[in-house]
Amino acid sequence: MPAAKAYSAPSQTSPLQPTTIDRREPKENDVAIEILFCGVCHSDLHYARNEWSDVMETVYPCVPGHEIIGRVTGVGSNVSKFSEGDLVGVGCLVNSDGDCPNCSEGLQQFCPNMVLTYGSPDEHLGGVTYGGYSDSIVVDQEFVLRVPDNLDPAAAAPLLCAGITTYSPLRHWGVGPGKKVGVVGLGGLGHMAVKFAHAMGADVVVFTTSPGKTEDALRLGAGEVVVSRNADEMAKHFGTFDFILDAVSAEHDINPYVMLLKRDGNLTLVGAPEKPLPVAAFPLLFGRRSLSGSLIGGIPETQEMLDFCGEHGITADVEVIPIDKINDAYERMLKSDVKYRFSIDMSSLKSE
Ligand code: NAP
Ligand code: ZN
After folding, report:
1. Which listed ligand is nearest to 117 at the C-alpha?
2. Are residues 139 and 87 in the same domain?
3. pLDDT at residue 250 in the model
4. Is the pLDDT of residue 1 over 90?
5. In angstroms, what is the span from residue 247 Cα to ligand 1's centroid?
């Protein structure tokens, strides 16, 4: 069994620390990957600290990481799509049943039997799957993505979760020229949403609690920035938005955003705060507004998003860190102090 270096959280309250894990021997459909970079998603923090225990209990030790970019180091005998040396990505999913109605439509993220990159039962090795805070991984070829060569690998890593999670609802809700789109929360997901909505031709307004992010928001593609704690600034936009994407990681009031939607406008949540968010009925009733959610994206759409990024030269704005800075990175993420995604340089694991 090949061993891999990794960082894991041993419990809900302990910091992440160096460890060694097993990876399976590549089977006939598998791709073995040397991980070069892994993005740091707020979901990694929620999961490592068991903040989603109402929905899924974290299994310890846990190795987070689902924004993986790496080089193929070997392929199984049935693998036709990849060969040694290819630059590839792995996102939040590493398998699914392949024959449910969702999988048949390429919506593997809704498969009842999907296997998450970390924290799902591991049918090969027992225990649970281990994610990308590691120097290698072995993944079925159907869940490996091609990464356009013109993209910087460190900055492309976040596309595998932050990228697809924002691209998918923007496409689903028909964002494009002539549409007024709001993005709530300028973090890892939010800043990708701004880049995509702008590239799709929409007019983008960013809602932030951090006035210091205003200039960045404009540079990323927003036409206007609203500091959401200012009720007067919010009120100016009443009833004007076609679509708003909420990418906030913590408890906050979503009702003021519903009021900003036009008739038939939609507010989609991608943020996954640990506690339920209260929703008032009347702002939804008046104007037939809707509230929905969205979960990452399927494999075909993830490839479409990566190709779109290749064509438009889109990647994340990253701060590259060595892996021994991961615990500091989590604390900074909690303070909304990330510009705009941490990307772990996995070569730093060699000295651990
Ligand atoms: P992040 O980088 O930490 O960004 C979150 C942003 O939310 C912050 O930068 C901040 O933006 C805003 N924020 C934080 N605390 C707030 C508060 N108390 N009130 C209002 N705004 C606040 O996180 P991320 O990695 O982008 O992830 C965002 C959320 O999406 C997380 O809950 C994550 O688990 C979830 N997620 C969901 C999916 C999915 O498939 N649906 C996929 C990935 C992640 P400002 O400074 O601009 O206010
Ligand atoms: Zn994520």
Report:
1. 2
2. yes
3. 96
4. no
5. 5
Is residue 318 within 8 Å of residue 152, measured between CB atoms?
no
For helices 299-312 and 162-172, give the axis angle rounded to 10 degrees: 100
Count structural domains, the chain.
2
Query: For 80-86, what is the mean pLDDT?
Result: 96
> End of a domain among 254, 270, 293?
293
Encoding tokens for residue 90?
Answer: 């792995």
Helices marked H in the chain: 42-48, 101-104, 153-156, 162-172, 188-199, 214-220, 231-235, 255-259, 282-285, 299-312, 326-334
Tens of pLDDT along 227-282? 999 999 999 999 999 999 999 999 999 999 999 999 999 999 999 999 999 999 99
Q: Which domain holds residue 335?
A: 3-161+297-351
Distance, in Å, from the CA atom of 330 to the CA atom of 335, rounded to the nearest integer, reads 9
Tallying the residues shown for the chain, one arrives at: 352
Protein residue with least CA distance to atom 31, ligand 1: 249
For Cα atoms 45, 33, 8, give the angle at the middle one, nearest 5 degrees. 30
- State percent of the chain over pLDDT 90: 98
* DSSP character at residue 224: E
Q: Which region holds residue 201: left if phi is over 0, alpha if psi is between -120 and 50, else beta?
A: left
- Mean pLDDT (whole number) for 110-137: 98
Please check whether residues 219 and 321 belong to one and the same domain.
no
* Residue 69 one-letter amino acid: I
CATH number of residue 136's parent domain: 3.90.180.10
> Which candidate, 281, 352, 350, 342, places its Cα nearest to that of 39?
342
Mutate to test the pocket of ligand 1, among 51, 67, 160, 249 (most ligand atoms within 8 A of CB): 249
Looking at the fold, whether 125 and 201 belong to one and the same domain comes out as no
Task: Kindly write down the DSSP assignment for every residue of 276-327, as one continuous string.
Answer: -----SHHHHTTT-EEEE--S--HHHHHHHHHHHHHHT----EEEEEGGGHH
> Which of 47, 165, 336 to mutate for ligand 1's pocket (most ligand atoms within 8 Å of CB)?
336
Q: What pLDDT was estimated at residue 84?
A: 97
* One domain, residues 188 and 51: no
**Are 93 and 139 in a shared domain?**
yes
